[in-house]
Each structure stands twice: as structure tokens, then as C-alpha cells.
Amino acid sequence: MSLQVAGIQVSPAIVAPLDPQFLPAALFTRRYRELVQSLGSVPLNLALERSDGCISRFDTLVVPPSVGHLETTLFHIERIVKFLLWQRGGWKLSVGGPPEIGHFIRSVYSPSGARKFDAEFMGTIYERPFEVVVMSSDALPAARETSIPLGRHLDGCRVGFDLGASDRKASAVINGEAVFSEEIVWDPKNAEDPRYHYDGIMDSIRRAAAHMPRLDAVGGSAAGVYINNRARVASLYRAVPPKAFAEQLAPMFLRIRDELGVPLEVVNDGEVTALAGSMSLGENPVLGIALGSSQAAGYVNREGNITGWLNELAFVPVDYRPNGPVDEWSRDCCGAQYFSQQATNRVAEAAGMVFPKEMGLPERLLALQKKMEAGDLLAHKVYETIGTYVGYGVAHYADFYDLKHVLILGRVTTGQGGEIILSQALKVLRTEFSQLAASISIALPDEKNRRVGQSIAAASLPAIQGEAK
Predict the structure, then answer these.
(1) Are residues 44 and 156 in the same domain?
(2) Would you state the pLDDT for residue 469?
(3) How far apart are CA 397 and CA 306, in angstroms?
(4) How far apart are CA 453 and CA 437, in angstroms?
(5) Is 8 among the domain residues?
(6) Does an H or E element contain 282, and which?
(7) How far apart are CA 365 and CA 376, in angstroms?
(8) What is the pLDDT of residue 455?
(9) Is 12 a domain residue?
(10) What pLDDT score does 452 carry?
(11) Which CATH number fits the domain that encloses residue 289?
């Protein structure tokens, strides 16, 4: 089957069984590079600056605009910029190279451009207006990256929690051994009252702490951006009015820390995903991808540290088809629609699987998993489709990350479906990207850690001052 976008035609060797129009970004990039090799090239350089003064560079080659294929090039670079913004973050983007490319990016990522959501979101995270600067490649700032250790503290009696859009998980951990773990269904995205969030989190912490002789520390992971234990932006709190968010929700974890009287650290759930992978594998680098209510991701580099990047891959495009499924928040076609329970529901319903209208996404996923256990062939194809997304998605991620280990976890990978996802992803990599398949490993954690591994790793986040009592 041949698929086309922006003048590029691709023919996937592995077609997504229930989504044949899926146009893998990795294949588009491969075809564009072939254009560059055959027609000639000029440098295109991108630099993203974050509020801590760190700068990420991404250097590539494009077809010279004078040669043609400008529409293809503009599409290609706009998608790269989108990836970099959500992978690495930044309040300022400098574009070096052909000026017509830079001016196009500046217009698209302006307050009135097609990607105004992304520009506004970055401005919110870094608390200054997002801007795009067009300059010569020679004037572009050099890369300046930093990394810091994360977690791995296992002494004492700890609680770790993980906050998702459909459930909250908590574990009690004594000297590195989980003695209790549980999941509780909740609905934070529709909760306007900050008290709902506070009460739910405290309930999970106390329920886990009841299984230990004392509480020495608490670590947590949650979707969104957290700086110094303060929530900046997160889909979990979208229903909370701005004033209540600023006054009650943003400092909530500081309040919880003070009330509990123990060290507490909260970070993005993606970072804990990667930490869980690194701790279970004992090797680095690790890209962790959690297929849950949405998509979470995190990255631990070769030194075993986190980078300070956002790694919000839920907003990263992996499907370049025109008119692909759109994320309700960003209004763009991006990862949340491919690596989550949103994805399983979208694919299943499009293929004719029927769920009661009143059934929520978590319950629909459970119903799908039961169908899988019963040998339902359509359910099997749903998971094969997700696995196809994962295989091509990992190949695309490899253009932006130094990869050695990729760990896939989260609610969607529970049960037989997880094994099918992994098998299909490996099939894609071995068929389409044999060199990459030989250089990286992609795996699932054991069944228990697939569901609660993040909350266990989260427990290791805070350091305890002195010896645990």
C-alpha cells in the first residue's frame, strides 16, 4: 500500500492491521533523506533554549529551496520542530539555514499560527513568551546540556505514588522491597475542586503507609510539568479554574510534604518511567514509554541521569497522514492517539467493536483485555495495530534519542496484549530497520511492574536525611 503526504510517497512493509492509512513518520524521514542525497543539501540548524540556560541543538540537512521540493521541506522541518519542542522543551527557538524555512517556522509557531497551542504551552512552562529567531547557521548558539541523578534511594520505609488520568497507584516500599501496591480508580480531569486531588492523593499515601511501621519519605510521579515540587501545567488539572490552580493546586505537594513531615519529591511521570526501566535493567541509556490513560515517556542517559528535557511524547507526531486522528487538547495528530488507552479505544471502535456508551475508557480497556483472554480475533488485531505504531514510533524516536534500551509499560501492556504489542513492534523493526533492531533492545517489564512499576520507582525519589529511624 502506498501513502502520500507533502509530495512524499511511502509504502510500509508492515501495514497496521486495523489502521491501514497510518503513515509512519520514520518512513517519511527516510524518503526525505533519499531526496537530499539525490538532489544535494544545505545545513538546517535548530537551537532550543530553556530557562536554566541550557541549549539543545539539532542539526540536519535539507534540499536547497532553489532546487525545489520546498513544500516537502517545510512540512519535514515543522514536524521536527514539533518533536523537539515536546522532547526537549524551550522558550526560544533559533533557526539557522535557508531564511524561508526559518520565517515559515516563525509564522507557524506564532500566537496566530497553526501551532499556537505549542507556542503558548512552552511560554507557560518557562514563564516567558515563546519566540522564534531566524539567523545564519554560523550565529546559532552551541549546545549546552546538563544532567542530574534521579532517585535510586531505597533505604527506609517509603511510599511511592503514580497519578494517572483514570487511576492512582501507590506502593509501600521497605528497604527496596515492595510490601504493598494498589490501584484506585479516579477521575481527576473532570474535577474542578482542588480538594478532590488533595484528598485522593492523601488517601493513597495513607493507605500505603498503613502497611509499614513508619513513614520516612514519599515520592510521586504525575502527568505534567513539575518544578521544585510545584505543578506548572498538567492535563490532570485541566478542570481546575486558573485562580484555584495558582492558589491551591500549584503548591499542593509542598502542603502535603509539610503535613506529612517527611521528605517528598514529585516529578513528571515520564521521568519515573525511565527510572523504573533503568533500575530494572541495570543498564543505560533507557527510553521508557508508558501506555496508560495517555502516553508518558522519560529518558535516562548513558550516565544514568535525567537531562532536564520535557520528554512529553504524548504531543509528538508519529503519523504524518493528512487528517489523522486529532488530540482534543493540542488539536494536532500526536502520540497520545497511538500509545494509550485512547488509542486502543479509537482503533477498536473504528474496527466495529461495540462498547456501552456510558462505559469509560478504563473500563473499555478492561473489556478489550477480557476479549483478548477469550481469544477474540478482533482484539488480537487491535493489539497488533498498537504494536505496529510502537515499532515505527521507536524507529522515529531513534532519530532524536541515543537508544540502547526501550522499555514499554503501562495499563495497555497488561496481559496477553502486551506480548502481542512487543512481538509486532519487533517485527516492524526487524523488517524495516534491521540495523536499528540489531543495536537496541525493546522489552516489557514483568507483569507486576507493568502496572505498578512507576509507583515503586517513585518511592526512591527523595533522599532521607541521615539514617531512617
Answers:
(1) no
(2) 41
(3) 17
(4) 25
(5) no
(6) none
(7) 14
(8) 72
(9) no
(10) 52
(11) 3.30.420.40
Residues 198 and 236 in one domain: yes
For residues 325 and 331, what is the distance between their CA atoms, to the nearest angstrom? 9
DSSP string, 122-170: HHHHHTS--EEEEE-GGGSPPPB---B-------SEEEEEEE-SSEEEE
Residue 257 shares a structural domain with residue 363: yes
Grid cell 526525505 — which residue? 32
Q: Which residue has the cell 497507584?
A: 169
Print the SS3 string covering 249-272. Answer: HCCHHHHHHHHHCCCEEEEEHHHH
**183, three cell numbers:** 490501584
Q: What is the domain range of residue 74?
A: 40-139
Pair 293, 200 in one domain: yes
CA Rg value for the chain: 22
Q: Are both 318 and 428 inside the same structural domain?
A: yes
Q: Which residue has the cell 518557562?
A: 126
Burial degree of 402 (CB within 10 A; 0-12, 13-18, 19+): exposed
Q: Is 125 exposed, middle or buried (CB count within 10 Å of its CB: 0-12, 13-18, 19+)? A: buried
Distance between CA atoms of 316 and 336, rounded to whole angstroms?
8
Among the three residues 139, 158, 187, which one is the final residue of a domain in this structure? 139
Same structural domain for residues 89 and 156? no
Distance CA 304, CA 298 (A): 12
Between CA 305 and CA 187 the distance in angstroms is: 32
Q: Tell me whether residue 124 is exposed, middle or buried, using C-beta atoms within 10 angstroms of its C-beta: 0 to 12, 13 to 18, 19 or more.
A: middle
Distance CA 155, CA 234 (A): 30
Does 157 lie in the same domain as 118?
A: no
- Specify the 3-state DSSP secondary structure of 328: coil
196 burial via Cβ count (<10 Å: 0-12, 13-18, 19+)? middle
- Residue 100 pLDDT: 97
Q: Is the peptide bond preceding residue 285 cis, with omega within 30 degrees of 0?
A: yes
- Contact indicator for 415, 372 with CB cutoff of 8 Å: yes
Domain boundary (109, 139, 169) is at: 139
The strand pairing partners of 406, in sequence order, are 287, 442
First to last CA, the chain: 64
Q: Is residue 469 part of a domain?
A: no
Domain contains 433: yes
Domain count for the chain? 2
Nearest to 24 by CA among 315, 388, 330: 388
* pLDDT of the residue at 468: 44
Asked whether residue 127 falls in the same domain as residue 173, the answer is no
Task: Write the DSSP symbol of residue 411.
Answer: G
What values do phi and psi take at 249, rounded to 5?
-80, -45
**Ranges in the chain, pLDDT < 70:** 446-454, 466-469
Report how far residue 464's alpha carbon sits from residue 251's, in angstroms, rounded to the nearest whole number: 22
